[in-house]
Queue: 4 jobs
Job 1
Amino acid sequence: MISLQNIEKYYTNKFVKTYVLRNINLEIEEGEFISIMGPSGAGKSTLLYLLGMLDKPSDGEYYFLDEPVHKFNDRKLSELHKSYIGFVFQQYHLIEELTVYENLETPLIYQKMNSKERKARVGDILDRFNIVGKKDLFPNQLSGGQQQLVGVARAVISEPKLILADEPTGNLHTDQGEEIMKLLKNLNEKGTTVIQVTHSKVNAAYGNRIVNLKDGWIER
Amino acid sequence: MWINYIKTALRNLSRNKTYALINFFGLAISICAVILIMLYVRFEFNYDDFHQNEIYRLSVKSFQENAESYNSPVFIPAIGPDLKNELPEIKNYTRISTKRTEYFYNKKDPVRVDDLIYADSTFFEIFSFKLISGNSQTALTAPYSIILTEETALKIFGETDVTGRSVNMNLKDNFIVTGIVENPPPNSTVQFNALISFETLYKEPNNYMGWFGGNQYITYLQLEENVTRETAQAKFPDFLWEKINKRLVDYNVRYEVYLTDLPSVYLSETSYTNIYIFTGIAILILLIASINFINLTTAHYTRRAKEVGIRKVIGADRKTLVIQFLSETIVISFISLLLGVALAALLAPYYENIIQKQVYLNILFDSYVLSGLFVLFFVVGVIAGSYPAFYLSSFQASKAFKPETVKNIGSFSLQNSLIIAQFTISISLIITTFVINDQLDFILNKELGYDKDKIIILSLENESSRIQTELIKETLLTVPGVQSASASTNLPGDGFSMNGYRLQEETTSRLINIVEIDDDYLKTLDIELISGRNYNDQFESDKSAYLVNKTFIETFGLTDPIGKIVHRNGEHKIIGVVEDFHFAPLHEKVKPLILGNNPHLGGFNFIALKVTTENYSDLLKRIEAEWKNLNPSWPFEYNFLDKKFEQVYKSEEKFMELFFYFASLAILIASLGLFSLTSLIAEQRTKEIGIRKVLGAGVFNLTTLLSRKFLILVLAANIIAWPVAYLFVQNWLEDFAYRISLDLKPFAAAAFIALLIAIVSVSYRTIKAALLNPLKSLKYE
């Protein structure tokens, strides 16, 4: 599903290159659950954003479903990104001015889905995640765990093939975290590919493969 | 999708009330100011647009030794009829006299009617004034016919249904009321309170109605179809040569006439300057408010970088985001537009009062103006919105989540240049306000060469009073508090009339200002005699003598003026020279002046009383009693010389007032913007402030840290504003022959005020931020 070949990422500042990722080669099959681990500053989040097409590599080739992503322009990237990828963040990143319902609906709006279908989809997901009662609340009226639940719900609402999660449990209590991890595992078992960044060995255990990063290199 | 955008926009606004209010009201106030100025400009440009016919006004230029000496629509009465009789191009004409003030007697008391004009019977054929009653064909045909406006009819008769009744004018002739006419609209060049048939003038023995005198009439013409102004004008030189110019060759005098179409008459007389200046101010105000809008929106959207990031992650592309942000700003500017229109409607009556013009608020709702406003708000919304929209939407999602990359927007150079632009405008306006104020002060307090204080002016409105000035003076001098009294044809302030005079052996005559005075004039007005002697009313020979002013002898190079001869209807010997005094407005230099001693025809027009009292109302009562004693039918009309003087500068004062209001508005909007911008920036830097406090920074330290940038910007604005304002005010001052010399004061004062405003608007928020408990501000992130 994903193939990274010799990916490099660096920032140039006053002619000094600062490397974040170095010579990354990575193959990911559909249906995998991968955990990216490593110390702070190893480049974990950058790698995740690259995979999510929110950032571009400085060098190297990236194939997603055999498409050469590194050659795509912004519009095509955005197209690919919004149809196949869902994102979950440590800080949840819900839109604070919108209610739970509206937050869940927004990605569907961007996919130009008609309102009837949107309604059905949002109703369905509220049901599935057991948050129907919370649909008219604003994010700041929810607990962290509930917000992250909405965050995951928003990520999966457009039925992506790939879910990218950046320390999804980093801000949560242990039992809330466990719930979110079980949810991701569950999605993975139904066929969705999951890639998570995590510090926790416990969370990494939910996955079937661990990629260790250190100073931008993949450790073998 | 739209619902989603509007919801986000509205919830965003309600969450940031200060920001929203300042944005709305700043924009609304500026739109209101723009509307008010637009109404004024439109009024000026729509002058005389209610007439159905194409009408031309005839004006005359006279040349003396090929130098233009006179240019005015006021000319002799014979030209209208002769033009129509002799040139086939002329379809019709109507003449009106200059405005008169007369007294009407229905019962016992005289009723004063100002702005009375004599008009030809064709008046209503040419102009589109509406008669309420009476026959427009015949109402002005017969001599001694009068048409009144409703208001005038009410004043004289106490009712308006008076057609056919008779009324006496000046205790002399009886007139028949032949019609009632609507008040002329305020945007009409021709204004009147009553119309008297032109035929009446031919019945009065003292009126010159031919080609060689009676310079008191304005002629309006209608041209035949297919005749252009140019073809008609081409015929004028030959026509004038036959009628008048060939007889003036020996005097080296020549007349030319030309036509002005009626809509242009007003605009050609009003200087465009004020229209330009206020249009300029409107644009500047709009600019300041738009800058606020851009700055605030940008600064505020920085806080929404996260939202941009999220929206991008969940599938928004750049185009969608640009549309979202643009629609938000357009919504804001539309709401502001509505607020602005409402505000303008509310303020219109006060505004009319200030500009002394009717602004016709209903023109706001004609399609022309409406579409103009619509375009205006759209442009403001798009321009103000596009910068933040395009900038924000360009964020990479991965960066949008890292606050530090976005935060830089607060110190970014566009914002700085915009603040400098705003303050440059504000400072220039403050400087200009000061200079205009100083110049007015200077004029109103200038040494005039005469004493305008404590002078009461009484008008001699009746012939019988005009020939009894000696008796009136003697009687009024018996009133305690009256120090001296003088009769004259005019008093200084708004200028004297001119006549042609020939000096010594010269062969051609020159136009020179003239006032007829008695021997108490110099004493009463405290005008200094610098050589020779004053008149003595006891000497009959003094009747033909002249006094002249200093400029007179300087202009004509008379080294030894006493005894020199001036010719006009005989010889006049100069017996004395007076120090220059400003008899005309201070826009012009003092000109040569003759002070004669022999009022012809009707006699003197005014009695000036120098008084010593503080209690004017008491004194006036006593003077009126004596006046009525002399003759109860004489109307008692008084004025004060200093008031008359101020009246001359009224338009400048109005200009000053209006300028002050709009300048204040501009400054208010700019400082509001600065206030909310600092609020936003202080908020963005909460964490930094918290850290600095933990490290030991004091409130003063922090306040300077946050305000320093703005103060530097305001100082930079001063540097740009000074030369700009200098050029502008220097230009404005050129209109005055007597003007202040520009010094550093208004500039320094403007700089001080601008800094003060900046400090006040900045420090409230910064001090508040600096006082915040660091624990709170650090937890905030």
Job 2
Amino acid sequence: MNTMNKIAKEYTNMSIKKDHIKLSIPNRPEYVSVIRLTVAAIANRMGFDIEKIEDFKVAIAEACTNAITHGKHLKDDNFNIEFIVEDEKLTIYVQDNGKGYSAEKLESPDLNNLREGGLGVFIIKSLMDEVDIVSELGRGTTIKMSKYLGDDFQ
Amino acid sequence: MSLSIVKNFDFEKGLWNIQLNGEVDVYTAGQLKETFISLLEEKKESIKIDASELEYIDSTGLGVLIGILKRLKQDNKNIIIINIKPSIKKLLNITGLDKIFVIEG
């Protein structure tokens, strides 16, 4: 999609209907597989191919893992997921009310000095077309990620 | 779907044969870590993972493998992964971990 088309499209999008799906999920690891099945069903219905559906499953699981592990650690609390379904694009917000973290701490993996954690956000950025992370210490984190149906946006 | 792990030691080749069936995520990664640690306590030898029935893995599982590989490398041992599905191979490629583990088949 070239820039002009994209601008034109975003302009027309103002009148195009967007479908919203909202979920509130317990802060517990056993629910992450439920989220993977949910995103696979939504992406499949939209017409994404198997490879992109797998990308969504991994990316959303990474975001949920972050929400659960960096979140409040309160197992009876919940975090929120919102799906915005458009004709050519699926956008997902994963939002926790946890501790938040400083975005500068996020780095690419250093293969000479591998740590056991820290790969998640790097993986999300690699698999999705657009990623935006808003995190504030003490105020939680929202990870926004989008992927387009076509191959023309990379 | 959860995770099941089949393990046996190959005395001829002197390495662990591990078959992973199912999904490794934040829920099952702890089970994988415990299994690998108990293997290494029994025999600190290279681990060959058959991933033909591994449907899903993410950074939580990859983190476990990285941690185990660090321990093995102290004794010049390795993690070998065989029969990887394309979606998982893609993940190893983008993280560069395909250069850290021995990938076969």
Job 3
Amino acid sequence: MPGAMKGYSALALLKGGFNGHKSWPRAWRAPEPKAFYDVVIVGGGGHGLATAYYLAKVHGVRRVAVLEKSWIGGGNTGRNTTIVRSNYRLPQMQTFLELSLKLWEGLSQELNYNLMFSQRGALLLGHSDSDMTRLAELGDSLLTNGIDAKRLSREQVARLVPLLDMSPDARFPVHGGLIQPRGGTARHDAVAWGYARAADALGVDVIQNCEVTGIDIQGGKTVGVQTTKGAIGADRVAICVAGDSSTVAAMAGLRLPIESHMLQAFVSEPVKPMINTVIMSRSIHCYISQSDKGEIVLGGDPDLYPSYSKRGIPMRIEEVAGQAIGLVPALSRLRMLRCWSGVTDMSFDGAPIIGKTPVENLYLNGGWCYGGFKATPGSGFVYAHTLATGAPHPANAPFGLERFASGATIDEAASGPQPQSR
Amino acid sequence: MFLIACPHCGPRSQAEFVYERAEEAVAYPDGTPQETLAALYTRANPRDFAWELWRHAYGCRGWIRMRRHRTTHEIAEIEAVGARL
Amino acid sequence: MIDRDRGIAFTFDGRTYEGYPGDTLASALLAQGVHLMGRSFKYHRPRGVMAAGVEEPNALVGVGTGGRFEPNTRATDLFIYEGLKAVSQNRWPSLGLDIGAANSLIARFIPAGFYYKTFIGPPWLWKIYEHVIRQAAGLGAAPNAAEADAFEHRAAFCDVLVVGSGPAGLAAALAASEAGARVILAEQDIRLGGALLRDPATLDGLSALDWIAEAEARLKTLGARILTRTTAMGYYDHNQLTLIERRVEAGQTPGPGGLAQRLWRVRAGKVVIAAGASERPVLFSNNDRPGVMLAQAARSYRRRFGVLPGRRAIIATNNDDAYRTALDLAEAGAEIVAILDSRPLADSPICQAARAKFRAHLDARLVAALGSKRVNGATAVVAGRTISVEGDLIAVSGGFTPLVHLHMQAGGALDWNDAGGAFTPGAGRQGQISAGAAARREGLSEVLADGARAGGEAASALGFRSGTAREAPIAATAFDAPHHTLARFETAPGVNLKTAFVDTQNDVTAADIDLAWREGYRSVEHLKRYTTLGMATDQGKSSNILGLARLAAAEGRTVPEVGLTTFRPPFTPVTLGALAGEATGADMAPLRRTPLFSVHAALSPPWQPVGYWQRPRAYPRPGESLAAAGLREALCVRQSVGMTDISTLGKFEIVGPDAAAFLARICATPVAKLAVGRGRYTFMLREDGMVVDDGTLWRLDEHRYLLTSSTGGADRMPALLSYVRHILDPGLKVAFASVQERWGAVAVAGPGAAAVVRSLGLEPPAHMGLTRGSVDAGQVLVLAASYSGERAFEIYAPAHELTDLWRRLDTAITSEGGTTYGLEALELLRIEKGHIETGAEIDGRRTPGDLDLQRMLRGKGGYVGAPALARPALTDPQRLRFVGLEAVSGAPIPEGAMLLTKAAGRPHGHVTSAGLRLDGSGAGIALSLLKAGPERLGETLIAASPSRGRNVLVRVVSPVFHDPEGTRYRE
């Protein structure tokens, strides 16, 4: 039986201070797998753990296992630039990501785990009058769909980010921007840990170092999985392994509209606060924020060739550094401290896939490209709904695998049936 | 960055090349809708070797077919494809 | 190695000090008796120098001023220069008296990960907490000025790249060079020698310094490139490495040219990694106090920098090498208070020599350092008994960690050496060969031989004759033997785990690691992320193994079972400026200019970026607004004539007997029946059936076509053309070339256009016809195509002759009462005529049907995108489809506005292009994409722009406002 979750609070921490912090229990148990679960979730990233949590919390499905081949949160959950926002252009993306953003807003309290969700704003820069018109269109689209957005003048942008290069002669001069004030960042690892702890408290088995090696299908129906810890039976098997979706889906004989590409990111050495919002630009494909620890967090375009190597090309990092300095010249003497890459599930319209597969009782959540982190709570919420009820939640109904054959693709970047850079 | 032995130009930096698509992803305009959808929207996407089409976009502009390992990045086979330049 | 003839003045926290050439900031300050150099990240504990190189976690300073200010600079890796200004960090009001040190008092309440457990209030409260946390976090001050100096990138190629110029690296470089290989030798220090600068030896009968000088001279003679102050930061695929060469020190003003740093992109045949090893600290209470120093670092300060880091030294070790520190310090006049050796047995000659002189204890382990801003003693347990000793220096050696970073970055495997407590390089995957201390070779002769072997192997693997390889140098040194390390990672009884620092910079203690383990953060990555172990600016160089070992002990497993976090570039932190090189600021992206750029620039028009191009938006008269100028120019085109630069359009020439068959793949419209000398409108699809671009197709000759596309499309089209040519239809007899920059082009439009063309001596072709001719002996091509809705011509001329043509046209136009016009007018004309545009209506998500192009599709298919069009969702009548809008009140319609049926409703579509009627009414019109648009003509909608606070009532109409019969352009 799972132990009761000990509350985290300032008072509890104070008590811990007097007993050498000896009484903190494990944040989540380390159970051995049982023979059978109602739902087996393959993949212990943020999405899989969130799915387990909402299955137990919202739908009362408590015989749930999350199988993680390595350590939870070790895939793209722990490798992104931690940006959270819902300022997309297409209504399907807006509806889904706004559902997610609303969940983010109460999540630290709900999970009793400080995710350091920081609504410092997500700022898109405009570099010409026509950029500003496109940003106005985005803002109009968001506002008419009930999502926050604010058009900022050049002067307002300069006040918000005093270190931006505001020179009219800049290669991409800043004309203004569009900010989503409710956007921001969160502590990525904490999302996995917080969901794991909360799911565990509801009875979910979070099983690490348990790699799925096969999917058992009998008479066209999924009945369980083979793992490095033995066979596990299940009513429903939920794939949730973005980055590796093709590999796991192949165990059930499926071929997906996904290629795995590398996305790199890096952080600088920590310094005192210098950038207080998330900066993005459509002309310059880099994004900049500063972590609570003081590191400047930078990302850009993916490497754009298939790879599972987790080793990116240096050229991309150099390009992002140049773009970042171009926007914020004072970054030049900061030093890159760590650089890493993640394997992203690049879907062929740029949108995620959440729903049923052609194999009965086998479900898929993947294809996140490089936008999965912000969607974590929403993804778990709608995937849990789909798994519990057998039908999609309205917010993920458009994101089924069948959309590629039907033509109802969700092409936010408008760049067609290829892994996309934006 | 890879060192790609362009069959026309010799070994050149990856910076000169563009990954175009997996070889299995060629959709012919005269194909059936089923063939087209399979080519456009399904991939084996293996973790090991796969045949890929690359283009020497910032060099001779020729097309290259290569068998490349998607984890180690070893290029095991490489050859020119397409029309004669 | 320090030049005492000349002093160098520098400041630290505003106080002036003097050092000497060859000094690091750390050595110069130590020589002045300054031991307190920094404060830690979390508890603000006083910190001194721990190391003598790049692994330093504590002594971090801010250096330089303005656009040269570099925070978090290691004092041990900063060679002083005249005028150096350094300031301590993360303290207020001063380094000596730091209010933040109060955090030490509440340390028990803020263990690892405390922030995950608290501040869980409502979001607004977290905002306040976060503000405080952010101010407290961060190490150095944030830079606030733009870069003062230059950075550049260079590429290089070599047979053998040798990383590190210690004894192994030099031996390797010599062996490879002598065999005939082209060698690059990279050394991160300011001079060659590595460990030879620290430990005296005789090599080939020469003193170490003379031997280094001779080796350097020999390498240069053999053509090797020697790069000092150059760090190999990353080992990437296919033996490409990035090196960072520091041309000046942090904060220092460069010489002429202003070059601060250079990034080398080196492609090597083989790479000898002779990066050495770094010494590990030891876990005991207050092991972070100023005066606790690595044993080899203490020796470096004494030998290389001529600074005695303490007068009364306590040596704590688990190996023989630290005995050498004892002997060296004693030789310089220090008292060796005690040698505390954790091993049960130590009987090498060096141990015996030291024991003869000093009090040395076996089975002896430190419990605590005493003193606060400087150590004044220590307690230890010796065979179960506690002793106290006094001293002002604790030189520690917890064993050695080979620097396997590059090996691992290159995909190499690691082996584990249990006695040494060290990961060593295992099987390589690329061209890497580790040598010397980086391969856990110990003892100078062994290291030299290993280096020579590695250099020879590298050369012979590349086909150079190893027969000519040179013998390894012969070394003579007092203690030429392995270190006999016996790694023991558990702490001594009595150690206060809350002040036993594993990661000093991030203040991660042994207690923090234990707490993380108890709470279940037991994977090495969870441990790292939960406690921040190894995530400080030293990247865990000294802390990693200690942390792993503690985790392994808790788990009851071995260190290799627990595993290691992955090493990724950079080896040491690298400035973003160096990464960017020249490609930032104005050179961040290319800037493309049309052949008429200087003609336009002379008129100082407002520019519009279009991709990388710059195009004039209008040519305002003095005092005239942009909008007014655009309107005037557009009206002038409608009423008389105008001309505009359209050189940026995509232009492709397709030649060959199979050109038509080739174009039939590209174009979704009929191609075959196009007569020579005629053109027609066309559009292209993406493979998913979406319209990707439009343009015109012209048949110049039997087997020669010209295809135009949008400016943006010009960058996409070559890939499509090439794909069809080489992959879909490689058998076709056809060739194509982009002639976008070969040909410039000017559009002449308006009722007077034909007269203007005639005035050049050219016969105006009929609509969608073409003529060839010459103007002033220059060849031109005239195409009769209209974008504006007026009679219009596109005149193409070679790019270098376009300026002359433009001037001739300008004269002709002016005499007709016409004008030059820019993009604003082009847009107004296009919108009123209802022409779709790539980037507006052609937004990448539209089928031909959506854009009312269905009837132009080639029925037989066979073009790219045809099969995908059969999908059901692409024929859904509820799709967004192309229609026109007119403002009910005549007011301007906001471009980008959403189309609503009621005020609070969800959008049914949006305004893609907004313009005005040019019929004198000036009424607001627009093009739009609207759900089921063509079925809703006459419906009234709200064009809502809440982001701009504007709502306009609009009526859905046909998109063609101007001359719907299409008579004007045919005249």
Job 4
Amino acid sequence: MLRLLASRIAQVIPVLFVMSLAVFALTDLLPGDPTITVLGENATPQQREVLRKEMGLDRPAPLRYLDWMGRTLSGDLGRSLRTREPVTAMIAARLPVTVELTILSMLVASLIGIPLGIAAALKPNSWIDFAVSVTALAGMALPFFWAGILLIRLFSIQLGWLPPSGYVPIWVDPVRNLTLMVLPSLTVGGAMAGLIMRQTRSAMLQTLGQDFIRTARAKGVPERTVVVRHGLRSALLPVVTVIGLQSGALIGGAVVTETIFSLPGLGTMIVDGIFQRDFAVIQGALLTVVLAVVVVNLLTDLTYGLLDRRVRLA
Amino acid sequence: MNPLPALAAAASEKATQSGPTLAVSDLRISAKRDRKSVELLRGVSFHVASGETLALVGESGCGKSITSLAVMGLLAPGLSMSGEVALTDAGGRIDLVALSAAERRKLCGRRLGMIFQEPMTSLNPMQRVGDQIAETLTTHGICSRQEAARRAVAMLDRMGIADPGRRALALPHELSGGMRQRVMIAMAMIGEPDLLIADEPTTALDVTVQAQILELIRDLSRERGMATLFISHDLAVVADIADRVAVMYAGEIVETGPIDQVLDAPLHPYTIGLIASRPALSTERRARLSAIFGAVPEPGRRPQGCAFHPRCSLAKPGLCDVGDVPLKRFDGRDVRCLRVGERVQA
């Protein structure tokens, strides 16, 4: 297991390097002038030029990259150009929101998708299979923002059961926090459930057709145990992959959901940063997203090792 | 100290008291294909007594595997089955066909044990082999988890696996093919079944390992007095292990009798062809192996009359291509051929 961990971490380093280049290049190529952010629309060209020198923006890009990378590696992501707040502090405040949204969404998606996928696989081509597949397709086809708005209309405006938007940290008021998270997690989780369901269904169908399932039945193992102990464990591998990939996509995709539900997470941080040409903020937030995606993929690989002893030995 | 001879004696006594352990009569299986019902098994009947080994022999698709799966209750959904599969022991007689799935499940692993052909895919790749063997016991609540694990190791030891305590912790892919098949056998035997079904248990193995595995199965069925249903396409293997043989063709038994008689003096033209097409060490190198011309009819395209007549050199128009051919008693065996009497006289 330790060897697996070490080799996966070694693979991660070049990925992070390339992504840091991309993040830097993207923000550098972004149209707009950061001096406007700091000095406002009415500053003179001379004032801007002085500031540019001060910020080091007159130096060539490769030098600036090395500079930035050096500071980043020592844990300093700079300060917001607008608020002068340290970017690391902003990330520390916002990361838990996005992480919570992602975890809850994947939980919702797995709790809906895996059982439905199994149900569909146990009776392939039955009405259950058909109904589940159609629902899954619909879930996948609905865009986040639209589903989110529909859910807000129904549960907040018409039924008045749940608050439409807002955020309270979980350590301040856990109940209020979870009530506020219900609609966002349903929006994202509902959309992801379809994919997980499809993956579970096909993996389960494939596994249940295998010889060792017949062997388990020949031993007189009850059908439920056959499905769960022998079938699900093998079938879960591809499902875990999808969950891992989706979690990565979710952290990146938080931009839309967080905007709809006004959650102060990384997504809204990126959006605000872009609108305000706040380079340090954009770079810091994007880099965090990249790191998070990489970590999730690493965790997925390690889960493989837990589920399948063969991977651990490899 | 050894309880096994006593067990075998008790088993053979049991057999004389209440007849065969397994009696299959008029087993018919059909599948729906393109809205038509296709008969895969056309009234198969046989019996196996305890301590006895019956081999079902035939080419792929003749219905031998489906027969074994039907006995185990492992037929794929969508197949319909009729007939009787009776399991008898001191406690009485049970018709397996009439049982519910749950009742049948209680017999699997305990009264019925099965060894499958491909030991690699038939073992769960992600479960330790010891656990897989012990599962038969824990599933039926025969003993505690610890005791089951202990017995699994003892069983591996009996299978001739060195260092069984350590091997029990291995995953299937860490074992050789022969060892995996020993694990399969241990799994089938640990519930001490009355009937062992072995579906091509040596086909996927090297010849030297084959011989060891056959010997193991033979020893076990003797020492435990089990009835064994052995399925194979390989007459050499069958000659080694079986007491009686039933040759199947196109979903029917065409000849059945004691193994020596059938192999030495086959009566049905199909059996004759099977035996002739088998290479022997004595066959001259340039001599051509004889093959049966033509191909096995697909299910649903079975010819009229005797199913074998289009491939049979002795077929007589007007006789062999009309009506059903019954199994006829002849020379101590049952043969499904209308011309069997005349040929022998001629």
